[in-house]
Amino acid sequence: MRLRLDSIDLNHVQVPLQAPLQADASGVLVKDSVVLRLQTSRGTGWGEASIPIDPEKREDQTVDACWEDLCDRLGPALLAEGNVEVEGFADILNRAAETTCAKAGLEMAVWHAAAMARDVPLYALMGGVGRPIPSGLSIDAFPSTVDALLERVEQYLSDGYRQVKIRIRPDWDIEPVARIRQQWPDLPLVVDAGASYRAEHIGTFRNLDKYGLAAIEQPLPSDSLTELAQLQAVLDAPICLDASRMDVSLMRDVAKRQAARIVSINIQRAGGLTEALRRREVACKTGLTCWVAATPDLGIGAAAGLHVATLDGFDHPTDIGSASRWFADDLLEPPIVVDAGGYLHLPDGAGFGYRPNREKVEKYSIRYETLTA
């Protein structure tokens, strides 16, 4: 399908968080995203360029860098094409993009426009099948005490999440895992090490392995293939690596050397749906299983992730949860909600199924730009 691109509306939105995230001394109070509304000859498409809530984010992934990339490079480059083939336009963005989240947001809008034009769910364009999607609770912060961590886990488990993921680091690992396992013996538990360990910590991971973990995410840097393969060989728990930060050749090497059994795929970090689908295809061909990771994203970006999660190969709970887990409000109707059994359900209808609310986009917008062909 070819679409004629007429205009792109850009809104930098700031949506209040439910609680401050301690990304610095003062805490982060809002979620920054750039929401895109793409007008085409066949209707409208929506996308989200989701800015990481991360104290260590690179300068090229800030909201200002993303905004500049969309206004000065990606938007004009795409509009200059006039008509684009939905299946091949990602290469246009790859030539012009400097920020992965900017490319992801604009590409998402084109995919959404195509799904709306064909009157089909987004997952249908990608080869997915509508199904309930299991959701896992992700606790990204390091609470001040283990007791505070246990209180947070207990608070959200009542919402039905089917898995819990906590962050660990060399001075915060065995005790929190042991205490969680003591209180919830059968809870599927993932630990995310954030590549903060080195090969000499193999003893720590062997101790952690005794607690029946569902996965150990990013114990070492992804390019430490020899050490990762040695570690995976002595663990019962599968290692999960972030495929979003790898090229496909590295993914093949990971599988060949059995350096992991699972990969996580984050649409924003990968640079869009097309790149996410490429990584999923490599994973399926090489025997790796997948889950959909999140930034966390507002509803538009999260909805796109849920459609990806319907594809074969995504065998593990997604990091995407209820919108109210993170945000005081959101931009979708109905809001994304985890049911009592821990599943997410895509609404019927074309595109996302969910409807972006233009009034809320405008309410939370702090700057606005329209690009025309």
Q: What's a quick, concise take on this entry?
A:
This protein is α/β, with parallel strands linked by helices and 373 residues long. The protein has helices spanning 63-80, 90-96, 100-118, 122-126, 146-157, 174-183, 202-209, 225-233, 248-256, 267-270, 273-286, 299-308, 358-363, and strands at residues 2-21, 28-40, 43-50, 83-85, 133-134, 137-139, 164-167, 189-192, 215-217, 239-242, 262-265, 289-292, 332-333, 343-344, 355-356, 365-372.
Structure commentary:
35% of the residues lie in helices and 23% in strands. It has 373 residues and is an alpha/beta fold. The chain has 2 domains: 139 residues, 2-Layer Sandwich (Enolase-like, domain 1), CATH 3.30.390.10; 220 residues, TIM Barrel, CATH 3.20.20.120. The strands form 4 sheets. It has a 7-stranded parallel β-sheet with strand order 6-7-8-9-10-11-12. Strands 1, 2, 3, 4 and 16 form a 5-stranded antiparallel β-sheet that branches. It has a two-stranded antiparallel sheet with strand order 5-14. A hairpin with a 6-residue loop joins β1 and β2. The two termini are 19 Å apart.
Distance between the termini: 19 Å
Percent of sequence in beta strands: 15-25%
Number of helices: 13
CATH architecture of the largest domain: Alpha-Beta Barrel
Strand order of the largest sheet: 6-7-8-9-10-11-12
Shape: globular
The CATH class of the largest domain is: Alpha Beta
Poorly predicted runs are none
One letter per element, helices H and strands E, the order comes to EEEHEHHHEEHEHEHEHEHEHHEHEEEHE
CATH superfamily of the largest domain: Enolase-like C-terminal domain
Overall pLDDT level: 92
By secondary-structure content and strand pairing, the structural class works out as alpha/beta
According to DSSP, the number of beta strands is 16
**Total separate domains:** 2
> Whole-number radius of gyration?
20 Å
CATH topology (level 3) name of the largest domain: TIM Barrel
Roughly what percent helix? Answer: 25-40%
Largest sheet: 7 strands, parallel
